[in-house]
Amino acid sequence: MRFERDNIRKMKGYAPGEQLNESGVTKLNTNENPYPPSPAVAAVLRELDAERLRRYPPPLADGIREAAAELHGLTPEHVMATNGGDELLRLVLTTFVEPEETVVITRPSYSLYPVLTQIHGCRLREIDLEGDWSLPETFIEELQESEAKLCILVNPHAPSGLLLGADYLERLARAFSGLLLVDEAYVDFVEPSLGYDAVSLVRKLDNVLLLRTLSKGYSLAGLRVGYGLGDPGLISPMLSKTRDSYNTDLLAQELATAALHDQVYARECWSRVRDSRETLSLRLKGMGFSIAPSQSNFLLCEVPDGNDAKELQLALKKRKVLVRYFDQERLRDKLRISIGSEAENRVLVDTLKELLA
Ligand SMILES: *Cc1c(COP(=O)(O)O)cnc(C)c1O
């Protein structure tokens, strides 16, 4: 304990959602994909020769970079692979933000952001969202006045699922002298007919970075692969200087590349999650929950009058149904429920019917 830096002693670590390794659990608490990874991923895993592990992997993860560049109509210089999307968050702080500089995020948002800014020792400015989880009208002015070096927005928003338009993000990035990091961990589940596309911003603005992950959209949370998209001027210092020398391992590189190449399978999974999102949302609303419109693979559900969200979460857990409760301002009357398979969603709804007051 004596040797920690002051800020480390004072901070709390990130609290991940529970991972129960029992059978028969309906796990809707950490936004994992309910479907298995692509059969192409399983095939690469089966066929990988252990002898290949003797050597170091390609240091820059060329396979992932090329696959992602092709997918998004960018060049590999616009892409860097990371050990989960979370590593990109840490790299952005250590590469671009001085310890005395300010980082702006919204409240609420992804609870890892404050943890990482505390480790780095920089200032954090949290701007409260409106009642409907949208940004306040004054957000851009407040951002400018903050003189922040970095602004992190999660889009679609977590934990509400609300989507900001790419045109708004463009206006924000153009008005902001710092770096805008858009965390698109859940972007794969956005309704395609909305035409949301922030990758186009990467082509024309040199202060926009996008975070992507294979954890949610590609059913690979256990593999730990994400990637960043940005102007080569932003990618290059992270790729050539601040990254761990072999930040993604050989297995991760090969499996992630296979997953990115199988877009047909991935799109089918996303579409099923979207369909289930609509069905589940209607069912829960029918039971008295108030639900924010979500473009993500989860729903933020305010519990019906006369119920206590924390108690409901514990009662669900006793019946082996896991959902997420956040002991945080504005979230204490809500549960965040990941979209499961049709069968899992039915178990959730049936169990809730037994429990609701
Ligand atoms: C899941 C998630 C990430 C990245 O997760 P990894 O598993 O590290 O790729 C980043 N931001 C948000 C908001 C997330 O929910």
Task: Tell me what you see in this structure.
With 357 residues, the chain is α/β, with parallel strands linked by helices. The protein is built from 13 helices and twelve strands. It has a seven-stranded mixed beta sheet with strand order 2-8-7-6-5-3-4, sandwiched between helices. The chain has a three-stranded antiparallel beta sheet with strand order 9-10-12. Helix 3 runs parallel beside helix 10 and helix 11 packs parallel to helix 13. The radius of gyration is 20 Å and the shape is globular. It starts with 5 loop residues before the first helix and ends with a helix. The mean pLDDT is 97. The site of pyridoxal-5'-phosphate (PLP) has 13 residues, from helix 4. Pyridoxal-5'-phosphate binds next to helix 4.
